[in-house]
Design brief:
Shape: globular
CATH superfamily: Glutaredoxin
CATH topology: Glutaredoxin
Mean pLDDT: 84
Number of helices: 5
CATH class: Alpha Beta
Low-confidence stretches: 11-41
Number of strands: 8
Oligomer: single chain
Distance between the termini: 57 Å
Order of helices and strands: HEEEEHEHEHEEH
Strand order of the largest sheet: 1-8-7-4-5-6
Radius of gyration: 17 Å
Length: about 190
């Protein structure tokens, strides 16, 4: 019985270490200068930036359609998350604050729950006082696994500029300051 506990403990430690790697990578990259981390000289987008796949219409938790192409002209913060995701619960209050603070400047925050039903998302959105559209990604692998993926873990956040360019991606949890820098660079 004791050996089983050790195996579980070692497995949990390895899993925790693996899950923190993307976050450490994001923080390390963001601490570098724009040229060192492969961003354009303007510092707005990564050097390998490409057009964002915006030709999708998704439903929010109330069944309303959200056409991503119609959001072009705004800066889009697109966050993939799930109700069971611990790091997502840390980031979402920041996104609520960013949406409140920068909506009039053209920031649109979108949350896409990858595997929760609207019934699961609604109480979560109420608890966190979410003030931006919560999109339903359940059954939409064409969006979160093909167009923006593959997504190997959560959270994942994409920054899309006003021209529709997919400028930055944060794999795993990032710092509030890192998000703030990206918003400032794109607004």
């Amino acid at each position: 019985m004791t050996s089983k506990r050790w195996i579980v403990a070692i497995g949990a430690s390895l899993a925790l270490g693996f899950l923190t790697l993307p976050a450490a990578h994001s923080v390390t990259l963001l601490s570098l200068s724009p040229l060192e981390r492969g961003t354009t000289q303007e510092g707005r987008c990564d050097a390998d930036a490409k057009p964002a796949p915006l030709d999708f219409t998704l439903r929010d938790i109330d069944g309303n359609e959200v056409n991503l192409a119609e959001l072009k002209g705004n800066v889009i913060l697109l966050n993939f998350w799930a109700t069971w995701c611990g790091p997502c619960k840390i980031e979402i209050p920041w996104f609520v604050e960013f949406q409140r603070r920068y909506r009039d400047d053209g920031l649109v925050v979108l949350g896409l729950s990858v595997d929760d039903t609207p019934e699961q998302i609604r109480p979560f959105a109420a608890q966190f006082q979410v003030n931006y559209p919560m999109l339903v990604g359940l059954g939409r692998e064409d969006f979160h696994q093909e167009a923006y993926g593959p997504v190997w873990g959560l959270p994942v956040t994409f920054f899309i500029d006003r021209d529709g360019t997919l400028c930055r991606t944060h794999m795993g949890i990032a710092t509030r300051e890192a998000f703030q820098r990206d918003i400032d660079a794109l607004l």
